[in-house]
Amino acid sequence: MIDVRELNFKYPDGRLALNGVSFHAEAGDRIGLIGPNGAGKTTLLLCLTGVLEPPANTIFVAGLDPANPTHRRVIPAHVGLVFQNCDDQIFSATVGEDVAFGPLNLGLNDTEVRQRVAEALATVNLTGFEDRVAFHLSEGEKRRVAIAGILAMRPDILLLDEPSSSLDPRGRRGLINLLKTLPGTQIIASHDLAMIRETCSRVILMDAGQVAAVGSIEMLRDKELLERHGLEI
Predict the structure, then answer these.
(1) Strand 210-216 vs strand 202-207: parallel, antiparallel, or unpaired?
(2) CA–CA separation, 34 vs 193, rounded Å?
(3) C-beta separation of 196 from 189 below 8 A
(4) DSSP tag of 64
(5) Sign of CA dihedral 17, 22, 26, 27
(6) Is the whole model's pTM more than 0.85, yes or no?
(7) Average pLDDT, the chain
(8) At 151, is the pLDDT very low, low, confident or very high (cuts 50, 70, 90)?
(9) Are the beta carbons of 142 and 171 closer than 8 angstroms?
(10) I need a labelling partner for 185 at 20 to 30 A (CA). Which of 44, 177, 204, 209 fits?
């Protein structure tokens, strides 16, 4: 489902953000992407979606190369990214319009769009919020609106960047329960290792733009490894 091969990415200022990153994910995998600030986690997620253009033939997601302009146009139908800051993702006047934005851009008819919006909002427990103003919602509710907007696209792969940040305990627990029920492949980038333990079966540890370790969720018990890369159990 995801195949990354010796991926390098350099920002315009010359900073090398990713250096030889390689990993793969099968359909249905739930992978926790962990590491200190500046490790390259967000850059990797943006490359997987084509928001940042990677070198050709270094990434394949659902069989698509984000470096290929033709492929990049159809990637949003297969790969959904939930940004760390929900306000970067929510921009329509109402919740219903925001969730409908993606399906409308797929060229779906109004009946299909309405059905997808209703299903996505029901999945995140926001039925009845269609006419609410998103910017007046709580952080937890905005997070669920952002996820609903992605779910309405029915992607095969769901990428989440620090999804539990700014959430209170109730919102965090609701998010964990939601992620555990969603189908498809998931990559969750987070410092919330307790959440990663509950939602993922594999872990990729990144540091300084490189993959430092890959393993099962039991890797999160390795105190020495985590502390060596700026993390704590």
Answers:
(1) antiparallel
(2) 8
(3) no
(4) B
(5) positive
(6) yes
(7) 93
(8) very high
(9) no
(10) 209
Q: For CA atoms 91, 145, 165, 17, give the dihedral sign.
A: negative
The answer to whether the Cα torsion of 207, 209, 210, 211 is positive or negative is positive
Q: Which residue has the tokens 């319009």?
A: 97
Question: How is residue 126 written in tokens?
Answer: 């926001």
Q: Which amino acid is at 174?
A: G
Q: Cβ contacts of residue 193 below 8 Å, gap of 6+?
A: 32, 34, 220, 226, 231, 232, 233
What CATH architecture applies to the domain 1-76+159-173+200-233?
3-Layer(aba) Sandwich (3.40)
Average the pLDDT over 75-88 and give the result.
90
Q: Which residues contact 231 (CB under 8 A, 6 or more apart)?
A: 34, 35, 36, 191, 193, 205
Report how far residue 58's alpha carbon sits from residue 144's, in angstroms, rounded to the nearest whole number: 32
Q: What is the mean pLDDT of residues 178-200?
A: 94
Q: Of 1, 151, 7, which is closest to residue 64 (Cα–Cα)?
A: 1
Taking only the tens place, the pLDDT of each residue in 97-135 is: 999 999 998 889 999 999 999 999 999 999 999 999 988
Q: Where are the domains of the chain?
A: 1-76+159-173+200-233, 79-154
Higher pLDDT, 139 or 60: 60
pLDDT of 94 above 90: yes
